[in-house]
Amino acid sequence: MASGAVAGCLGALLGLGGGVFLVPFLNAWFGLDFKTAAAISLVTVIATSSAVSAGTTGRNLINLRLGMLLEVASAAGGVAAGITVARISDVTLERGFALVAALIAVLMISRLERRNIIVGSAVDPGPLGGRFHDDESGCEVAYQVRRLPVALGVSFVAGNVSAAFGIGGGILKVPVLTAWCGVPMRVAAATSSLMIGVTAVASVPIQYANGYVNPPLAAAAVLGVLIGSRGGLWFAGRVPAKWLKALMAVVLIMVSIIYLRRSL
Amino acid sequence: MRLDASSLDRLEAHLGRLLVTGVIVSAALLAIGLGLWLANPQNGIALWLLNAGLVVLMATPMMRVVVSFAEYVNMRQWFFAGVTILVLIELSITVLFALSRRR
Fold first, then answer.
1. Scanning every residue of chain A, which has its alpha carbon at the shortest distance from the alpha carbon of B42?
2. Which tens digit of pLDDT belongs to each residue from A59-110?
3. Domain limits of chain B?
4. Do B12 and A62 touch (CB under 8 A)?
5. What percent of chain A lies above the pLDDT cut of 70?
6. How far apart are CA A52 and CA A7, in angstroms?
7. Picking from A31-40, A191-200, B19-28, which range would have the lowest pLDDT averaged per residue?
């Protein structure tokens, strides 16, 4: 439950499900086998997604159009997972994941100072962009979505590895959306929070039917995540976007180390 | 494919209420179920409550997609209605597959 709380808090801050920490933790500390740990983690991803999205509605931070569009790619990735996961060994997957996380961390750090928002109400945000009230600068800001194919591609990969690692995929989507696709950090986090629930729901029912979800343990983890996400939401509104990006980079480096060690 | 801001705000508000309800109902079921289970792991009601909580939890994001689809149709936003129906089809494949495993 405590580990669920930490995962939920980070999840709410950064738009992740927190599964990326929960799985290694459940696996190493509770001695759960990887499949059970991944299934429980995915259940908590759903909880984080619903709780965090419910807490961020009404502030124009969730980009419903972009989210829906990217969900198609992540759901397709989920469908294709059955094929790819069977072909690639766990060790290769883990190493690949560690490498990708490290690369994204570097990308994130290199773009730390850049902000994606355009101040002023005259700017046209385009069909997928949007506007929101930025508390940091205290004014109405707009942003445009760029490089949509990149965003679709990373969503496909995120959905693809979701079931295998027990993660929602926010860890891949949020940094890429922020660094490459012109989406502001807070919007990327809020939109990703909404999406990861659907990503997880695309595979959890099957794992549940196969008996990988242990109900009492899942309940404890979910309740922990719900408590943690309240804390994360409280923090998220109070720290500058730059700190969120820096935290994201730190998290990525940790994740990279965790999965690299697992694969050795 | 442009949407006016007010109808999007309304959709977001609807989805927000739906998600809050789903989270509260599933959290309550899971909390009571977990409490009863800790008192007596053989308690049938406890397991039923735990499973019901998990099912509500899983149903919440699915309902969100269903509601989004209905609202996009209502707004005559065919592009986004099409996008949501694609997601719905994918999710129903998963659910059907899960149900067939359960028997």
1. A216
2. 677 777 788 888 888 887 877 765 565 566 767 777 777 777 777 777 777 7
3. 5-102
4. yes
5. 72
6. 12
7. A31-40
Q: If you count residue pairs, one on A and one on B, with CB atoms under 8 Å apart, how many are there?
A: 144
User: Tokens 């760029």 appear where?
Assistant: A146
Determine whether the interchain pair B60/A197 forms a contact, defined as Cβ–Cβ distance below 8 Å.
yes
Please name the residue of chain B whose CA is at the shortest distance from the CA of residue A124.
B2
Q: Helix axis angle, A34-56 relative to B5-39, nearest 10°?
A: 130
The token duo for B24 is 């509260």
Compute CA distances A16 → A95, A119, A258, B38, B79, whole Å. 20, 27, 17, 30, 28
- CA torsion sign for A42, A44, A48, A54 is positive
Model-level pTM? 0.82
From A125's Cα to the closest Cα of chain B, the distance in A is: 11
Q: Does B84 touch chain A (CB under 8 A)?
A: yes
* Contact (CB<8Å) B33/A43: no
**For B50-59, what is the mean pLDDT?**
89
B67 in contact with chain A, both atoms CB, cutoff 8 A: no
| Lowest pLDDT segment from A217-221, A231-235, B97-101 | A231-235
